[in-house]
Specification:
By secondary structure, the protein is an alpha+beta fold. It has one domain: Aminopeptidase, CATH 3.40.630. Helices cover 21% and strands 32% of the residues. The protein has an 8-stranded mixed sheet with strand order 1-2-3-4-5-7-6-8, with helices on both faces. A hairpin with an 8-residue loop joins strand 6 and strand 7. 29% of the residues are buried. The mean pLDDT is 92.
């Protein structure tokens, strides 16, 4: 049975296998520790009965209250050997639950346009493409940068679903707020 629990500092020593996926953004140790210190309730791990890290989610709450106050998924990754077990969906559900408790209007995330498996999964979870962000992701091969979808899902606090109506459908990274 999968154990879902808060992320701990020592998990940084055990999640390399999860981060080896080419679509997973890997950050400096200080970045993970900053999230763990500031938003511990948004940082969770899925662990196998044998203690292996199966996946994790890292996020935060940000924005200006009330209309822009939202949960944000910074990273979600599941090890290739544990995919198709709904771990990502459960980790997302738990992050959304935390966002609801924080009275966030919506939850958002960025995903590579080319990562159609992830885009379809997020759509099944109720997320919509809010806008496209040009050249958001750097190319690891030195080729041209890649666009991202800014995807959102309103929470129960967004009664009129205003958070998913975009002013502009295409923006540059400089225009993000």
């Amino acid at each position: 049975m999968t154990l879902y629990r808060p992320f701990k500092c020592e998990d940084l020593l055990k999640f390399n296998r999860v981060n080896l996926d080419p679509l997973t953004e890997t950050y400096a140790v200080g970045f993970y520790l900053q999230y763990l210190a500031k938003w511990p309730e948004y940082f969770m791990v899925a662990e196998s009965p044998s203690g292996d890290t199966m996946g994790y989610i890292m996020g935060k709450v940000e924005g200006r209250a009330p209309d822009d106050w939202h949960g944000h998924v910074t990273a979600l990754s599941v090890s290739s050997e544990f995919r198709r077990m709904r771990l990502a969906a459960e980790l997302m559900r738990r992050l959304e639950e935390v966002s609801e408790k924080k009275k966030a209007m919506f939850v958002d995330l960025f995903v590579r346009k080319s990562n159609q498996v992830a885009v379809k999964m997020y759509e099944k979870l109720g997320y919509v493409v809010y806008r496209t962000v040009l050249d958001y992701y750097s190319s690891p091969t030195g080729e041209s940068d890649e666009d991202a979808y800014d995807m959102r899902k309103p929470t129960s606090w967004d009664v009129h679903r205003k958070s998913i109506v975009a002013d502009k459908k295409i923006v540059s990274p400089d225009e993000l707020h």
